[in-house]
Amino acid sequence: MQDLETTKINKVYKCTLAFIFDGLDESRLTLDFDSGMVTSVEERSSVDELFASLVNRTLLPSALVWVTSRPAAANQIPPEYVGLFTEVRGFTDQQKEEYFCKRFKDETQASRMISHIRKSRSLYIMCYIPVFCWITATVLQDIPIGNKAEDINTTLTEMYIHFLLMQMNMKNQKYDGKKQREHTKLLDSNKTMILKLAKLAFEQLKKENIVFYEKDLQACGIDVSDFESTGMLTEIFQQEAGLHEVKVFCFVHLSVQEFLAAMHVFLCYLNKNMEELQFFFEETQNEVRLNCELQSESPLHYLLVKAVEKAMQSQRGHLDLFLRFLMGISLESNQNLLRGLFPHTEDSKDSVTKTTEHIRGLLQKYISPETSVNLFYCLLELNDNSLYMEIQSYIKSNRRAFLSSSMCSLLAYVLLMSEEVLDELDLKRYKTYGKGYMSLLPVVRCCRKAMYVTC
């Protein structure tokens, strides 16, 4: 607005304006709603100060402001400045099926796809994310009709591994004229390329960057011309200061960056690359190595616990999906799928068991609803469905049970995601704290009768 004439500026104050800020969690803005407020459209200021001033209405108080964000980052905005909070939960069960019916015009193929997904509880839950529906459809479309349900990939991590394999196979066929179906050989032939992309993904995720410049690629040994064929990076143009346009890059989807970053971290663990793993530890590299040696019976568990702690410390939740992928890749079955990239696999049963116990312990404490849901998904990535079954037992049983506030959040989440309509919700069945009861309030939307006496 710096070039507007005074008469035009006056008109601005009389107009109804709407500002849409898409992706607060990706912006890395430093927000301060108590100082440095802007009051005039003629005043120059930084983007973060302009944003905060619009939100708290010191600037253009009549303007409408709409902000989209992943849940954790949305909490940066004080509740007193939020007039309406809308949670977009992704696809409903009906919309999941509609998606596959539209994606596959052949009714038999669409029906087969839906049937496969329904048989896998974790897969069916995860399909609430539209991009996951797309990747699931891409991966499963070539599966013969006769395949058994138990042969279908069932976790987010497995799906993304197969998506990576498909992208590399397409790249080989299109640019090298080769068709390679054997997983290990396919990954081994593209190993250098994939590992450089994985390093780039992690380096930029640490900085909370989703777009990056050619110099960032070069720092990871990436020649742009060699990587355009992978289908994992996309190139966009961004206007810089002045009239210049420069190339900037991003992964085809943020989740692909998070998946590759997790793969890089696990590879660093296998190679005992303490310098790269330093991100997760407060100690010096020597102390980290010593701690791993002291816990030599399950050093992987030690890393996974530290990764959980690091993700929980993030105010923006930028490590949430990365954490799920890291959990999934730690499974020996998924390590085997990535054998062409990893120098060796590791028996992780003991570490996985200890990590699931650690996560279950965290869910008995008070943690935010967003963190509770993410840890729930981490358990699914570790092929632990016991918590889901436990929640189902609370829903179906009439027995009284004590629930932590985190468990209340998960109970509400599962009920809302399932779209199941309850005949009655009686909160007297659950013993919890005030915050726990507050977490259950949204469930009133999916029950015919709700009893909140003495809550």
Automatic annotation (TrEMBL):
Query: Any keyword Membrane?
Result: yes
A single Gene Ontology CC annotation of this entry is: cytoplasm
Q: Give the highest taxon in the source lineage.
A: Eukaryota
The record ties this protein, via Pfam families, to:
NACHT, NLRC4_HD2, WHD_NOD2
Alphabetically ordered keywords of this record: ATP-binding, Cytoplasm, Leucine-rich repeat, Membrane, Nucleotide-binding, Repeat, Transmembrane, Transmembrane helix
Instruction: Reply yes or no: does the keyword Hydrolase apply.
Output: no
Tell me the ranges covered by the NACHT domain, including all copies: 18-107
Where does it primarily localize? cytoplasm
Taking every annotated instance into account, which residue ranges of this chain make up the domain NOD1/2 winged helix? 193-251
What InterPro entries does the annotation carry? NACHT_NTPase, NLR, NLRP_HD2, NOD1/2_WH, P-loop_NTPase
Which Gene3D superfamilies does this entry report, sorted A to Z?
P-loop containing nucleotide triphosphate hydrolases
| Localization per record | Cytoplasm
**Taking every annotated instance into account, which residue ranges of this chain make up the domain NACHT LRR and PYD?**
253-388
Query: What transmembrane ranges does the database entry give?
Result: 122-140
Q: Which GO terms describe its molecular function?
A: ATP binding
Q: What protein does this entry describe?
A: NACHT domain-containing protein
Q: What is the lineage of its organism?
A: Eukaryota, Metazoa, Chordata, Craniata, Vertebrata
